[in-house]
Amino acid sequence: MTIKDMADILSAKVLIGADKLDIPVHTACCSDLMSDVLAFVDEKTVLITGLTNPHVVRTSEMLDLKCLVFARGKIPAEDILESAEEQGLAVLATKLTAFTACGMLYEHGLRGVPVPTAWDDGEEDG
To answer: Which of 5, 20, 11 is nearest to 88 (CA)?
Structure first.
């Protein structure tokens, strides 16, 4: 799946990074808690969130993420978009809830980032 495929599936508006739509994506993470994202994401991925503060862009930079998707019709402030553009991120906005967006992407083959748990039995969950 590419970022363009994601945008089409989510009927998302491309806010930043129209030149990055051909980048492939293999996993996604959905959270409004950037501490969870920092703790559990260790691969280049897509972040789906409803949080529109500067922490989202900082987290994306630290993890070298490819794309941010803002859910629930939220559009971040111009300074946040400028920071995302400086980092080379693609930024999308969808009117869908994060739950629905994740479900639609999963249905089309995008999987979640594997997260180890205390009861980890070696099997991967999506």
So the answer is: 20
Which residue range is the domain that position 64 belongs to? 3-112
**What is the DSSP secondary-structure string of 73-87?**
T----HHHHHHHHHH
Tell me which H or E stretch contains 69: strand 67-70
How many other C-beta atoms can be found within 10 angstroms of the C-beta atom of residue 25? 19
Pseudo-torsion of CA 44, 47, 52, 56, nearest 10°? -30
0.85 cut: is pTM over it? yes
Q: How many domains does the chain have?
A: 1
31 part of a folded domain: yes
CATH number at residue 90: 3.40.1390.20
pLDDT digit string (tens) for 16-64?
Answer: 999 999 999 999 999 998 888 887 777 778 999 999 999 999 999 899 8
- Name 119's Cβ contacts closer than 8 Å, sequence gap at least 6: none
Whether 113 contacts 29, CB under 8 Å: yes
**Residue 39 covered by a domain:** yes
